Automatic annotation (TrEMBL), chains A, B:
Residues 54-166 form the 3-dehydroquinate synthase N-terminal domain. This is 3-dehydroquinate synthase. Its EC number is 4.2.3.4. Catalyzes the conversion of 3-deoxy-D-arabino-heptulosonate 7-phosphate (DAHP) to dehydroquinate (DHQ). PANTHER family: 3-DEHYDROQUINATE SYNTHASE. It comes from Dinghuibacter silviterrae. Its cofactor is Co(2+); NAD(+). Keywords: Cobalt, Lyase, Metal-binding, NAD, Nucleotide-binding, Zinc. The keyword S-adenosyl-L-methionine does not apply.
Length: 341, 341
């Protein structure tokens, strides 16, 4: 089931409900390198078969330049040239790394993704943002460059650990908060256990989220405005994620909780409790104690800063996110107030 | 004197015959970082004044990832955000590094160049190709992304060492060979000493070369065809450049000499002697002995390889370059024949 999506200077084919084995119809096996991590490789060995494969150590701590160097060395060993393809098979760390290397190796090869986690399916693999962390700064280096295809195989989720389901749900809840009130309701009415049992419901939810994010990206590929909404929960989230080595979804969930409180103060938002309830229902942390001063030092370097203000994402109501420019000073004192109270 | 040039998804303003001091009219001083090397910094201290400046060690051996890491760390120290500018002030190494970092830092900042060498003025700063070397492989990692402006100040050439004048002339002669027979004649009729004395002639020559390269790039920004012509002399040149630590122009000059001989065999080219004479007149080496086997191992990884053949640039006649696909095996034996005979 192919859906072709157009971006400003590229198009991407989305294959929903498709077996990962169909990869061989999309790329030439002899001129393709799959990039994955040890976990995914161990769980889906049949999928990798005799494809050229680069297997990385799993985890966000490897989303760094040293790993990029290692991938490039292996591409040279394969004698990969510009006619080759790179396909990332994995979660968000793998899609971020793969997209980035595909953008810079020989000034750019074609690439595609087979996302294997909820997070990668509904978020990381979509929209062309890629990159690596630099020290404590998340995604400080990277590109915006669209993959040629995304191949969605729900069966790959069978081996996903519970913690990764929870991690991915943070982005689903984020999408509902900023853009889709009916989906928020659907999340309130269901549970993670139900989603894991009901394959049709799950496929539908993933597709709905993939297309929601796609629509936002299409409207603003290079993040001049609208696309910033997708950073709901991420400004503070990114700051504390690497500080405390938190799962991405946990960090974003804490970030969304704080953003709800900021919204209550700045936009008159009144539904914080419903958001917190849904986050907790899907196993996510909400209220947390952290070192505000240290977080602030990282947060002020966020890519959404513009001079002395931060473009912060707030909610008017569930389903309606907005971008608000908050002076750095005011933002700092509000954060101190919420986190220490 | 501003000339606006359009590329596929960006435009670049060329300021010919303009004082470098006019930079302050183009970018906001408080949100700009200049990137340069110790030589350029020492020779043009007044130009840098109180601008935020990153000063790098000079030389091709620093066109590597470690330097990119160092630049990124310094941009973080400046708290540079997406609203900042990066301006490369220097030769080809500086423009390659600066363009690359500007492309990946925070997924892309605006950038411009003030080229300070002949090579950078007529070649490296034009067309958006940037990148770094990986081990023995030249420019193996990089992007194609256009600068917003190029500022040409001929007076900056005053401090350019003789060896760098010679280096740059290799690219001028290359342009003449592939595209501009009248310019080739002009080069035959003049000398480097004359060019250095006659500022008007020099300015005219630089402009002619900058616009020649620009036209080729505009026709084929992402190097599907025509733009490959600019690699005349570079396929072999790049292979031997890092092997023997040669100046870029020397390596390309040797590469052009070999390409003329290949052309004689494959296209019936009859003007090798005239090309060799001009190269030598401008101080460039032509015939050289090198380790063909070792060069071949590097050459076969060239970005212009497509499967089992190499897109090699040959001449039909002076002023008319062509792209010819040569099977790797045949190319290897021809190279062995020419270099060892």
């Amino acid at each position: 089931m192919k859906t072709r999506v157009s971006f400003s200077n590229a198009s991407c084919d989305y294959y929903f409900d498709t077996s990962a084995r169909r990869l061989e119809e999309l790329v030439p096996r002899a001129k393709t390198v799959l990039v994955t991590d040890e976990h995914v490789f161990a769980h889906h060995q049949a999928l990798f078969g005799d494809w050229n494969t680069i297997v990385l150590k799993p985890g966000e701590q490897y989303k760094v330049q040293e790993t990029v160097n290692a991938i490039i060395d292996q591409l040279l060993d394969f004698e990969a040239d510009r006619s080759w393809w790179i396909v990332g098979v994995g979660g968000g760390v793998i899609t971020d790394l793969t997209g980035y290397v595909a953008g810079i190796y020989m000034r750019g090869l074609q690439f595609g993704f087979i996302p294997t986690s909820i997070l990668a399916m509904v978020d990381a693999s979509i929209g062309g943002k890629n990159g690596i962390d630099v020290g404590i700064y998340k995604n400080m280096v990277g590109l915006i460059r669209q993959p040629s295809f995304l191949l969605y195989d729900i069966d790959l989720l069978k081996s996903l650990p519970e913690s990764e389901w929870i991690n991915g749900m943070a982005e689903v809840i984020k999408h509902a908060c900023i853009k889709d009130a009916p989906m928020f309701k659907l999340l309130e009415e269901n549970t993670l256990a139900k989603l894991k049992r009901d394959k049709a419901l799950l496929a539908q939810l993933i597709r709905r989220n993939a297309l929601l994010k796609t629509k936002v990206v299409q409207a603003d590929e290079f993040e001049q405005g609208e696309r910033k909404l997708l950073n709901f929960g991420h400004t503070l989230g990114h700051a504390i994620e690497n500080m405390y080595d938190l799962p991405h979804g946990h960090a974003v969930s804490i970030g969304m909780t704080v953003a709800c409180h900021l919204s209550a103060r700045l936009t008159g938002f009144t539904q914080t409790e419903r958001v917190v309830d849904v986050l907790e229902k899907y196993g996510l942390p909400t209220y947390a104690v952290f070192d505000v001063d240290k977080a602030w030092d990282i947060l002020k370097m966020d890519k959404k800063r513009a001079a002395d203000a931060m473009n912060y994402i707030l909610l008017n109501k569930i389903g309606q996110g907005i971008i608000q420019s908050i002076p750095l000073e005011g933002l700092q004192s509000l954060l101190i107030e919420f986190v220490t109270s």
